[in-house]
Amino acid sequence: MAKTEPCMSAIPDKPKLEGLEEKWGPVWEEQGTYRFDRDGAERAEVYSIDTPPPTASGSLHVGHVFSYTHTDTVARYQRMQGKRVFYPMGWDDNGLPTERRVQNYYGVRCDPSLPYVEGFVPPHEGGDGKSVKAADQQPISRRNFIELCERLTVEDEKQFEDLWRTLGLSVDWTQTYRTIGEESLRASQLAFVRNVERGEAYQAQAPTLWDVTFRTAVAQAELEDRDQPSAYHTLAFHRTDGGGDILIDTTRPELLAACVALVAHPDDERYRPLFGQTVRTPLFDVEVPIVAHHLAQQDKGTGIAMICTFGDVTDVIWWRELDLPNRAILGFDGRVISEAPEEITSERGREAYAQIAGKTVFSAKAAVVEALQASGELVGEIRKINHPVKFFEKGDKPLEIVSTRQWYIKNGARDEQLRERLLAHGRELDWHPDFMRVRYENWVEGLSGDWLISRQRFFGVPIPVWYPLDAEGNPVFDRPILPSEDQLPVDPSSDAPAGYSEDQRGVPGGFQGEVDVMDTWATSSLTPQLAGGWERDPELFDLVYPYSLRPQGQDIIRTWLFSTLLRSELEAGQLPWKNAGISGWILDPDRKKMSKSKGNVVTPAGLLEQHGSDAVRYWAASAKLGTDAAFDPQNPTQIKIGRRLAIKLLNAAKFTLSFDDSGAGTVTEALDRSMLAGLARVIEGATRAFEAYDHARALELTESFFWTFCDDYLELVKERAHNGEGQPQASAVTALRTALSVFVRLLAPFLPYAAEEVWSWFGEGSVHRAAWPLAAEAGDLAGADADAELLSLVGGALVGVRGAKTAAKASQRTPVTLAVVQAPAETRDRLALAADDLAAVGRIAELRIEAAEVDAVTVAQIELEQAEA
């Protein structure tokens, strides 16, 4: 570990929290307090953290402070345990969120067909730009657009780093990476090339979930259901055998032209006789079969449904498993394509299709419904409903399903052996809390398709593939050209493959470059490799991988945790970490999850400035992993409690250090020994809690005993420590100094600024490089026979004496001529051991401690000295 120089500082007259961030942040940076020291390190002494790279678009919110503080308490604890802590920070700056922010911030949009403009100046800069409509955004070249993405992410990342530093994250800022940086580009492309070479990545033409706004494919992990208004329409399909009509209910009549079959459950007695027969579709007059499949719901609508290519994910399953034709009618822009399916041959059907060609889904639905009403094939009333609809988690319009050529990575959805290995890794991983494991297992077991990783976007890692062109200039997709590893990184849109020259781009017999980029998760899934120097710094990678901890939120178990584990299994056949720490969510006062999309987030800068970083950290650290926490910015009670604790630490330290310690050495007095015995228990409990990744329990144990120390022990021994003589006085000071040293170190992971300030008054170097306290530090001084409960008993008597004075409306300084304390017989002699301290703090001239049949220590009688008239 890096050494730190002593940084002794004078105790201020009035200790305060204000200014501690500005005082200690630069000191930690200058002295390398949190720097990872790899010189001569062995893997066993390294604790490595796969830190979540925040999305570098917009601003951090209080939820980030919540979860990152949890991780930081662990990092600080492990560092004090003597570990060399590898705690990097990354920035997830490629992908759709960044593009969207750049569009709004600068008022532009990307048009790859446009030429690059040297020295381009965007139409405006600043604000959120949301008042600029998409149609009014200035189109610019891809290169100009990427330059703006680069410019804005660098600015955002600097602001993020400043906030993280203010919060006191003990990150090693020399270990940072960007998911769009050159090293990340190379690692992402290298992993992909190896996936292709091993047969784990492949390209296919298939139905794809598609966001019509962003014109990009969307993976299963990026979906979310949102309740949307809709309506059931009952349509009449005509049996070709003349047996009448079959009625089906649908919410998507606009896809009627894409209907390829009707489907019912194989056990449905109503429709079993019809399987294998055909019907003609209303309006478009196309003959389609009636088929059976177990996913058809007998109790939904009329029990029989139309299969369209493609209305929803179930349509895709039916289409694939029943080997049905593809009759897709929606284009990438979400509009009905101009050319009708060739199966629509009747004049009536052609005319009906002409009425919807080029229309949006919404307008096409209105046109089809109107035509069905006119033809009499819409039966009964339209029935309004609300139902869940698939959305891209960052999108504003329902997803459609279109047929596209995309790149996929196998994830176990169709490979039972891979799925079982992934489930086995999930059982091998230590989850904190353990119940989060079920969410992972449910996700793996519920996968319905391989991981779609290609995106039709601009600011991302280029998919490193070219395609040869045949004699007619058509791409040969099943013979992709891959770069060699030493060529990486490459951009196929501007680099030529080996063996070709740039003038062969786009000409027959030449090549064309892949224009898609990778899903941002395809890069983020490699964060252990990116931060750890995979294939770049083997010595570092061997020291940190597999990592000790992956901390993250519960909502991205299905994306980040799963995808990282998948890539590690495919590349190395092992877990990428030993532990997973899963934080809960921050809820607003209405118990709703805080998120940018809901508009209910709170930015932390104001909280940190108003209350101080230690206070905000206390609030965050008070919540266990996996537990949601409500936060009301108008009444931040926990933050105020944290601030009070930090101030109390400063004041208690100043008070403790005010006593003469020239005779300190051994502890002989019963009350001092009791306090230290109790403190030894706290050290043991807090250490066990941290080892179990329960930082909140460690804080709870420490804080509770610290207040007992301040409210009871300090009060009881201050007279002896201040005015006592000989060994009794030395015993008190020794116990006080020992306890202060222990408390500062126990609280250091939670209140780093106050702890560092106090440590600088009496300790050497940084408290954050000091050794985590051992129970023996307090326990050995206390002695094996110390009565750990005595302090609590005497504290109860002190509360009684104070209460009696308060009831008499007397000052706590009022002398007491007589106080009679009653206690159970087995307690009486123990209590008598601390009689002198109790009498001194209570200003009691005569103190009697009597055995009585009482349940607890009780002040039975008290006589106050009468003030002179």
Biggest pleated-sheet summary: 7 strands, mixed
**Low-confidence regions:** 1-6
What's the oligomerization state?
A: single chain
- By DSSP, the count of extended strands is 29
Q: What is the helix fraction of residues, given as a range?
A: 25-40%
The helix/strand class is alpha/beta
Count of helical regions: 25
- N→C terminal distance: 68 Å
Task: Provide the gyration radius in Å.
Answer: 35 Å
Q: Quote the average pLDDT.
A: 92
Portion in beta strands:
15-25%
What is the overall shape? elongated
What do you see in this structure?
The protein contains 25 helices and 29 strands. The strands form ten sheets. Strands 9, 10, 11, 12, 13, 14 and 15 form a seven-stranded mixed sheet that branches. The radius of gyration is 35 Å and the shape is elongated. Residues 1-6 have low confidence and may be disordered.
Write out key terms for the chains shown.
nucleotide-binding, four-stranded antiparallel β-sheet, valine-tRNA ligase activity, single chain, 869 residues, alpha/beta, elongated, 29 strands
